[in-house]
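Protein modeling request. Please complete all fields; requests missing the sequence field cannot be processed.
Requester role: graduate student
Desired output: 3D structure, token encoding
Chains: 1
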Amino acid sequence: MKKYFKPILLLVILIIFPLISWYYLKGGIEFRREALSALEPKETVESLNYIYNSNVSFAFPSESYRVNTLFLLKDNQLPENIKSYYNQFKNTEEVAVFVKSSQSELLIDDLSLYEHIFIVDSLANALEIIANDGFNVFLIDNQNRIRNYYRSNDENSMQDLVTHTAVLLPPTQKREITRRSPREL
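Delivered output (185 residues):
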């Protein structure tokens, strides 16, 4: 038995572990490829509309954020799915959430707690047409291109929104490991 142990261990280390790693990496690459195919630019939005939040105005979509997400609300309440989406990306400076409601001024007090949620004054024509088809969430990049549309009342659609947002964000840079000299300890 001892005679076979070393060759089997060598076989596992040199062949089995790399095959398992390749299998999982291939799955991750396919997942990202599928997500990117769903995020092909669909239309371009004019940046003529203005956002206001605490008396600050700027163009929508904002070029200072890599990902702009627009939620169209039927009532003047901030739904839980918007709060949940915001909380997942609140630590990044790359994602902004925009809200459009029939009476947006009623939302200002609710939004004062959130740093990267803004109110939209008016919509671009392209967004109004798409909204009439039942979509009420839009993912827009910093080059004013609509990447995808979602329905906020569909849980799978909202999960796709989170996945697609993460795919559009650049990977985070990991800190390099530095070795300390014995004197620094």
